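Need a sequence for this fold. Nothing fancy.
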């Protein structure tokens, strides 16, 4: 067949085209109103955030994890320690081993999952011994206001005194939790930083809905300011002025502002673990500080 004949055949019999059209579900009409309602239902509800990140922290949906998965695995490879006792050997992940010493960690953004874990640990430690202190180590850029307030309220609710220590940074909601520790037991390491600012958030929809969310975030700001006033002794006017924009502080400035009580380089005696068996610590020199203070624990071996 000649090229001219092929061209004539192609023009006479064009290939069929496929134009997909959205198909309405049975029994429903695809109207613009129904499409808008489905779009609105897919938009997550507005939330107030209290974070040092340039954009509000958005918790990402987590995929379903297999049985036996620990949320601590979000940190990557979790070290295990083996403790040898008179009854044999026992293995712990590092976070469980620290929990045994009444140490609770808040690392990373504060979201609902973080709050659930921290609240559960605080309640458990109170049930174990309501008189012994709990040591809360904070390294966080902040997060969701309601999640942070859940941790704060639990700290005030339990009978155990809660000591707080800033390692790295305690920004936004992290700074509020740092200040909420027991008076005289709020500390920071020398190279940590603290940041305070007002809450941020967003809203969309009708003007009435936006006004409702704006009113709510203003109420949250007033509530947070009163909490800072309670734990720092600063006036509301000064707190509002300082929190108008991000205010970064080194540990000394945070101490002067009333967010912490002291800056430490070495572990004080009050933060030494009691350990197991009540054996006195031998004197050690070198790093870590506090040699000869506290109580001994058999040195666990890392796996």
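Here you go.
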């Amino acid at each position: 067949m000649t090229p001219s004949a092929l061209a004539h055949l192609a023009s006479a019999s064009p290939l069929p085209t496929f134009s997909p059209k959205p198909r309405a579900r049975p029994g429903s009409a695809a109207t613009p109103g129904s499409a808008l309602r489905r779009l609105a239902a897919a938009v997550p509800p507005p939330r107030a955030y209290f974070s040092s990140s340039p954009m509000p922290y958005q918790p990402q949906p987590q995929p379903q994890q297999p049985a036996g998965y620990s949320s601590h695995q979000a940190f990557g490879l979790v070290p295990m320690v083996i403790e040898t006792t008179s009854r044999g050997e026992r293995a712990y992940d590092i976070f469980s081993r620290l929990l045994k010493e009444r140490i609770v960690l808040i690392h990373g953004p504060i979201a609902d999952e973080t709050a659930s874990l921290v609240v559960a640990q605080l309640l458990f430690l109170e049930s174990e011994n309501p008189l012994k202190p709990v040591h809360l180590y904070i390294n966080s850029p902040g997060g969701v206001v309601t999640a942070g307030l859940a941790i704060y309220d639990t700290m005030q609710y339990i009978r155990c005194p809660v000591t707080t220590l800033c390692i790295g940074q305690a920004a936004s909601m992290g700074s509020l939790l740092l200040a909420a520790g027991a008076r005289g037991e709020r500390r920071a390491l020398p190279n940590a930083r603290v940041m305070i600012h007002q809450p941020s958030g967003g809203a969309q929809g009708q003007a009435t809905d936006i006004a409702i969310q704006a009113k709510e975030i203003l109420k949250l700001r007033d509530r947070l300011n009163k909490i800072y006033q309670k734990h720092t002794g600063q006036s509301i006017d000064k707190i509002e002025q300082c929190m108008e924009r991000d205010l970064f502080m080194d540990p000394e400035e945070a101490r002067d502002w009333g967010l912490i009580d002291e800056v430490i380089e070495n572990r004080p005696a009050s933060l030494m673990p009691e350990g197991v068996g009540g054996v006195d610590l031998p004197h050690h020199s070198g790093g870590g500080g506090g040699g000869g203070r506290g109580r001994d624990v058999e040195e666990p071996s890392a796996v």
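For context: The radius of gyration is 28 Å.
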